[in-house]
Amino acid sequence: MSRVNVWWPMYPANFTMDTACLTNEQVGIYVKLLNAAWHNNGAISSDPKQLARVAGVSPQKWKKISESIRPLFTEKEGKWLSDWLSEELAKAKANRSAKRNNALKRWHGQSETGMQMHSASNAKAFVGPMQKQCPIPIPVPIPDTSRIEAQGSDKKDAEFGEKNHDIGTLGGVA
């Protein structure tokens, strides 16, 4: 079966509680093992040599470190499983399946409805307008504010000048 997701959910509070007794190196190895399990449909081989390889440590070092990491997994039929990761994988599979079924319903319903009909009508609707050339924009004259600034006594004209001056700036910054 293909991978469900390229990421797995992380719950910081739970993760911190689960890994509180581990060193930073052991936490890094635990994350590597979780990544491998997620990538391999929720399980990794319980073979110490393979676990050491996934962890990126020597078999001798793995033997020492595994004692701390082992309680975070359940062993079943020669595989290591993470209970919460298996639950998240099941949720992700169900979510993927539901989204796939909904997409199939939209695109391949009983009759030509939904997205098929909508897409076909949009494709036909835009054929004409897309082929027309865009009209040439009409230049808009910019008002001469020098006269307004020079008068200064007419409050409305001065306010217009200030507002007009701020056009084209963002937050008063040019």
Profile the largest sheet: 3 strands, antiparallel
Query: Which spans of ≥5 residues are poorly predicted at pLDDT below 50?
Result: 164-169
What pattern of helices and strands is seen along the backbone? Answer: HHEHHEEHHHHH
Give, in spatial order, the strands making up the sheet with the most strands. Answer: 1-3-2
Sum up the overall morphology in one term.
elongated
Q: What is the CA-atom radius of gyration, in angstroms?
A: 32 Å
Strand content: 5-15%
Helix content: 55-70%
Q: Output the number of helix runs.
A: 9
Mean pLDDT: 77
What class do helices, strands and sheet pairing give?
Answer: mainly alpha
Q: Report the end-to-end length measured between terminal Cα atoms.
A: 57 Å
Number of strands: 3
Structure notes:
- Helix content is 59%, strand content 5%.
- By secondary structure, it is mainly alpha-helical.
- A 3-stranded antiparallel β-sheet has the order 1-3-2.
How would the blueprint of this fold be written?
Elements: H1 12-18, H2 24-39, E1 43-45, H3 48-55, H4 59-69, E2 74-76, E3 79-81, H5 83-107, H6 114-125, H7 127-131, H8 146-151, H9 155-166
Antiparallel strand pairs: 1-3, 2-3
